[in-house]
């Protein structure tokens, strides 16, 4: 009985936080399923999860990083937490690589630090010393950490770099693209309130997502939602930037095709929101379809590409016809 009292169980999590990095896999062609598994085999004791429908997606096992540090807070309160941050990688269609680092935290924990074994049996959980001011931590996490505070972005970035250094990658990408960062928090919905999602693009392109979800929603499922959002936001950003950076009215058809061709070959078929979300979370995409209208934006970009390719083909046929008439 005394042993049970000395190691009380933490309460149910009241906060989950994470960060997603998204980039183009640094290689010329999309990798096949076997190569995807080799890239994401981060642990020998767990297999890479692979699904083929509705598109190919590989998810690594979680790797854990032990931390004992202060959590970011909006009001400057010093909150110490101990435990492990979970991180995983996702590869979509052998083409787009994502790394995610995340944790959950309960409302309170023991008043003093416990041995590491207490925390290691709770993977992905950061247990506070004392009470957790969840609203202040959530707001502080989205705003960014200060020196000496937890930085889960560095965990995600380290995992991304680890995979990107794999020898089977040739670093000859078909497109020059930038990576994006999406930082998220999730808290339980207030009584008599519906789940909600607030998406913001802030300074220097940082994406933030504040979620209110049913109590007990698994943090791994929330991470999956944010990975899906980050993937499709990256697609919109990348395709939009490429179209803005090319002079579509120029007569240099080869230059235009050099940009549009890779977009068609490597990215246009990847648009498939909500493909693998848990049903309780899939409805949150509706907010993104209303404002800013993710799919409407994508459809408009895709149509621009198709129209330009059709126009280029028409001009090429006309030039070929004119050349034949000139030689007669």
TrEMBL record:
InterPro entries: SCO2521-like (IPR049749). It comes from the Bacteria. This is Uncharacterized protein. It comes from Streptomyces lasalocidi (Streptomyces lasaliensis).
């Amino acid at each position: 009985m005394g042993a049970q009292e000395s190691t009380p169980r933490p309460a149910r999590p009241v906060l989950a936080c994470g960060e997603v990095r998204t980039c183009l896999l640094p290689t010329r062609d999309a990798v096949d399923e076997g190569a995807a598994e080799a890239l994401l085999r981060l642990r020998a004791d767990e297999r890479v999860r692979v699904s083929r429908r509705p598109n190919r997606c590989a998810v690594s096992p979680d790797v854990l990083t032990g931390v004992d540090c202060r959590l970011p807070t909006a009001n400057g309160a010093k909150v110490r937490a101990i435990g492990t941050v979970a991180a995983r990688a996702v590869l979509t269609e052998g083409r787009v690589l994502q790394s995610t680092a995340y944790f959950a935290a309960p409302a309170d924990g023991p008043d003093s630090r416990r041995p590491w074994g207490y925390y290691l049996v709770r993977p992905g959980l950061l247990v506070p010393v004392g009470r957790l001011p969840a609203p202040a931590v959530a707001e502080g996490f989205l705003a960014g950490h200060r020196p000496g505070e937890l930085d889960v972005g560095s965990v995600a970035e380290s995992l991304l770099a680890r995979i990107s250094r794999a020898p089977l990658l040739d670093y000859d990408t078909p497109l020059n693209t930038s990576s994006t960062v999406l930082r998220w928090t999730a808290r339980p919905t207030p009584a008599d309130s519906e789940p909600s999602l607030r998406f913001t693009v802030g300074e220097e392109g940082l994406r933030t997502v504040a979620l209110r979800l049913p109590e007990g929603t698994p943090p791994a499922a929330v991470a999956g939602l944010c990975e899906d959002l980050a993937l499709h936001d990256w697609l919109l950003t990348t395709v939009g930037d490429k179209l803005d950076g090319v002079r579509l009215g120029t007569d240099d058809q080869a230059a235009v095709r050099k940009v549009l061709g890779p977009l068609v070959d490597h990215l246009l078929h990847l648009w498939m929101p909500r493909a693998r979300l848990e049903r309780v979370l899939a409805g949150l995409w509706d907010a993104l379809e209303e404002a800013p209208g993710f799919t409407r934006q994508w459809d408009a970009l895709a149509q621009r590409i198709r129209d330009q390719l059709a126009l280029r083909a028409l001009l090429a046929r006309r030039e070929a016809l004119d050349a034949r008439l000139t030689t007669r």
